[in-house]
Amino acid sequence: MIQTETAKELELSSQEYLKLVSQIMSIRKRSDVPKAYVRTYGCQQNISDSEMIKGMLSQAGYSFTDNAEEADFILFNTCAVREHAEDRVFGNVGALKNLKRRHPQVLIALCGCMMEQEHVAKRIHDSFPFVGLVFGTHCLHEFPKLLYKSLVDGKRIFLRDNDDLCVHEGIKTLRDGSFKGFIPIMYGCDNFCSYCIVPYVRGRERSRRPEIIINEARDMILSGYKDITLLGQNVNSYGKGLDCDINFAKLLREIDSIDGDYWLRFMTSHPKDCSKELLDTIASSRHISLHLHLPFQSGSNRILKLMNRHYTREKYLEIINYAKEKIPDISITSDIIVGFPGETYEDFKQTLSLVEEVGFTSLFTFIYSKRNGTPAAKMDDPISAEEKSKWFSELLKTQEKIASKRCASMVGKTEKVLVEEKSKKEGFLCARTSGNIIVEFLGDESLIGTFQNVKISKARNWVLQGELIK
């Protein structure tokens, strides 16, 4: 018999709540098994969070579908970093209104960074009454209880802003891939860059225990994972607050010492904490990929100070030059914000000159997006959107020339690549180098998930083409 006590009367373990959910859904399911639709917006950390949610749902007996129409449970895991991502969420949630009308028993839930913002949670509460469950980034470990309570009580639940500064372990993860995967090593951020909402929605920095991370990495390697990415809002500050002698470079060395054929990646790094010890570790490693993603955001010291980035242009270039000296084949990528409040064209030209001096493999470029609740949102922003778009186009053209030249320099070389998927081009496969550059080549899809050697024969601006060496 299914127990029907309200969640108020129950204080069970997560496993017990999931078992109760399984019993409930064995009756409420719309098909042979209950189905869940999980859609993720934003960064790799959100993807990792969704994988944990899927792990809990699988323990409760759910299977997964890509079609929201056939789902018993629908979840949007949201991103708050840019306005466009928020607008997409509101639009897609609104589109579920008719689905809920046709299938009243479907539970619709929202989680993630957007839900940690009070004005967003209020808008969801007031304007989307068919959304039954809303929870923030700090409540992931409470999902089994929240899901059970939603199903039993039938009342709307909104839970957010309960940052207990703890790391909750033991949550099962159902990874999306079989040979590429993520391991979160820390949560939150203490940097408070003036444009960034992350510290307000993800909380303060807290690191996972190194032995737990190392064991997780070992299990993934033994299971056949070939590409493992360590995640954190600022991985370089890993270890702060732990009661053991550990930092990020030491953690990397411990994982790198595990035998196997795999690549180890990490993101994201903050320049103010990027140490020579870290770069030396990459240079001497067996498995760490030759790729450094190091966001500089602006080449102007004046703008960097307004951004509260805690480094200068000169310091950034010092790090880059040391990395190139120690790791000659390193591939460097970065993030840039164009049109930060108060930025002039002279400031922007300093960004362009830094891009030309470093010679990045690729860039993630964004026009400044105002985030309510951040200091930058209150700054004067006199430059028009049209002018910012012109600067943005100029930046893209500059980087395109650099990327084209860099890709052309690789023609004739043989690269070890990890084959990831079928290409859109008939008969071709899509692979990635240690330096995070995409390579396409003719090959059978049975090679997906394996390392192969490919001789580069042709270069485009962002993608290489090669021939499989058998």
Give a verbal description of the structure.
The protein is an alpha/beta fold. It has 4 domains: 7-159, Rossmann fold, CATH 3.40.50.2300; 177-285, Transcription Regulator spoIIAA; 290-409, Transcription Regulator spoIIAA; 414-468, Nucleic acid-binding proteins (OB fold (Dihydrolipoamide Acetyltransferase, E2P), Beta Barrel), CATH 2.40.50. Helices cover 35% and strands 21% of the residues. It has 14 helices and 19 strands. The chain has helices spanning 14-28, 44-59, 83-94, 97-102, 118-127, 143-153, 198-202, 210-222, 248-256, 276-284, 301-306, 313-326, 345-358, 385-408, and strands spanning 35-40, 63-64, 73-78, 107-112, 133-135, 157-159, 180-184, 186-187, 206-207, 227-231, 263-267, 291-293, 331-338, 362-367, 414-422, 428-433, 438-442, 451-459, 463-468. It is globular, with a radius of gyration of 23 Å. The termini are far apart.
